[in-house]
Amino acid sequence: MKDKIRIHLADDHQVLIDGMRTLLNTVSNFEVVGFSLDGNTLYDDVTNNKANILILDISMPKKDGIAVIKEFAKKGYPCRVIILSSYDDLKIIQEVMKLGVSGYLTKQCAGENIVEAILAVTNGEEYFCNTVREKIFTTATKDNSKLNKQNSIINSILTGREVEIIILIALEHSGKEISEKLFISTNTVETHRKNIMKKLKAKNTISLVKFAIKNKLIKS
Fold it and tell me: Which pTM does this prediction carry?
């Protein structure tokens, strides 16, 4: 029998804890092994019940979620962290991403996405709900992108995802950075890059940058 995914919930609202526990325990290979209403004893709570996944709110009493993540990183307990927060502030999202969280969901989308998120991070992937994902990408490109969505030539040649990747390549992002920003694997990034090169008959990355500038995808 496959081992169950052991989940610990951390939020200062008992009603949310109870609702999430009820939802997650309906999944056959999930087991909610504990919960915490403040951050002060959270590390000890998780290590004692040997949870694999921590669902964590940023706004925790006594010790906030960011301090908790830093404590886990410092002490080295191997638990994947998914942030479940009312906040979708980009600065907070970027900070917890740098600290190595595996996922970020707003509470508005939790019911729809939480099961999928847990399965994804258990498999070693990152998971961010659509609201968070769009905010990260829009911010990454808004000051540089001059994409004209009415450009029929571009739209007839490239998919929307390929356009996103050209923009990021032209902005000198590495394959790893692109994979992190678009939440796809580096192999997928490389496959898209090869398809783009073929479609545009581009010989190298410089050709892609020239294409991006000529079609006003980025500033020259």
Answer: 0.65
